[in-house]
Amino acid sequence: MNVPNDLRYTEEHEWLSVDGSTVRLGITDFAQDQLGDIVYVDLPEVGAELGKDDIFAEVESTKSVGEVYAPFDGVVTATNDVLADTPELVNSDPYGAGWLIEMTVDADLEGFLDADAYRALTE
Fold first, then answer.
1. CB within 8 Å of 77: residues ≥ 6 apart
2. Mean pLDDT of the chain
3. What is the pTM of this model?
4. Closest C-alpha to 115, from 1, 29, 28, 9
């Protein structure tokens, strides 16, 4: 299982890449593996205001539909529109081309798991 050391993680199997007040979000390699072959991704509109624990995306696979939750309050500043035509990027490159959204946040991002803690969670 791929768990990059430079990211932060949630217990709900999302990853976060922090750049100042902008955070890029996606689902982890573990999550995409559990879902199976992803065939559709539903993302919010740019400008959507999300509260902590709001559902911001649905990831549909051949096995099930997974909901993705906002780990904090913020505003969606970008979505990965490429996923509309190539949702399988979430399977093949979950930490790169398969990212879901970017948000602007004004919150403490210290409470998230590092790579070692996330690995322990999924073992």
1. 22, 46, 102, 103, 104
2. 94
3. 0.94
4. 9
